[in-house]
Amino acid sequence: MASATYPYIGFPIAVSQVYPQGMVAYRPVARATITASTGKSARWLVLLDSGADACLFPLSMAKMLGLDVTKLPRALTLGVGSQSNVTWYDTVTIDLGQEIKFSAYVGFSEAVERIGTGLLGQSGFFERYRVEFLLSQKLFTVDSSL
Amino acid sequence: MAAALTDLAALLEGIPAGAWVAISETLNKVLAHGPDAQVVLRQAQEQGENLPLIVRVPDQNAAMFV
Fold first, then answer.
1. What residue spans define the domains of chain A?
2. Cα nearest neighbour of A35 on chain B
3. Which of A85, A144, B62, B63 fits A111 for a cystine, CB–CB 3.0-4.6 Å?
4. Hey, what CATH topology would domain A29-129 get?
5. Which residue of A has its CA nearest to B3?
6. Best of B42, B43, B65 to mutate (most A CBs within 10 Å, chain A)
C-alpha cells in the first residue's frame, strides 16, 4: 500500500473583465513521468479530474513518446464547451512519484491540447486510488488502499 | 529530488499565453518556450536536461478550466 501527499499547483489566470487583476487558480496537479511502449518517457503535469471518464493527454505528448497514432485504436471524446475530438488510445505507465505508479489505457487528443496538462480520470486512476482534496491546505492525498 | 514547484505564475511570467514551456525541476527555471512542444523539448535537451517538465501557459481566451 502507498499513500502520497502532493501540493496543489497555482496556474496564472490572465487579466479579464471577470478578473481585472488576474488570479491564480490552484489545481490538484501532480508532476508525472509518462512512459510508453516505445520506451520513451515524458515529464508532464497531470490534473486529477474526477469528471473525466478516462485518462487523457494532449496529442503533443504522443509525438514526444514516439507513438504512431495512426496505428492506435481511436474513438471520439466530448468535453465541456468543445466539439467531439478524435482520441487515440494506448497503454502507458504513469509515475507520480512517492510509490504511486500504475499502468493505464489512456487517450491522446487535440481536445486537451489547449489545456496542456494530462487528465487522470475515473477509468485508469480513480478506480485504483482513494483521493482526498484539501484545497484549504493546498494539498491532496492519493492512497492505494481502496 | 525535484525542487518544490507549487506556483507556476511567477515562473511563467512574461511568457506568451498558449506557449509550451520546458522547465528544469532541479534548477526551478524555464529552459525554453515556444509554440511547438517538440521543439521546446529539443531545445531543453540541448541544454542537458533530458527529461524537462513540459507545461503550457494558459490560453488568455480560455483561462478558466471547467
1. 29-129
2. B51
3. A85
4. Cathepsin D, subunit A; domain 1 (2.40.70)
5. A31
6. B65
Residue A140 corresponds to which cell in the numbers above? 491532496
Give the pLDDT of chain A (146 residues) as one tens digit per residue: 899 999 999 887 778 888 888 888 899 999 999 999 999 999 999 999 999 999 999 999 999 999 999 999 998 887 756 677 889 999 999 999 999 999 999 999 988 888 889 999 999 999 999 999 999 999 999 999 87
**For A10, which of B9, B41, B56 is closest by C-beta distance?**
B9
**Does B50 contact chain A (CB < 8 Å)?**
no
Residue A9 has its nearest CB partner, among B5, B13, B62, at B5
Strands A74-77 and A85-95: antiparallel
* Helices and strands in chain B, H and E counts: 2, 3
pTM: 0.90
Q: Does A64 contact B38 at a Cβ distance shorter than 8 Å?
A: yes
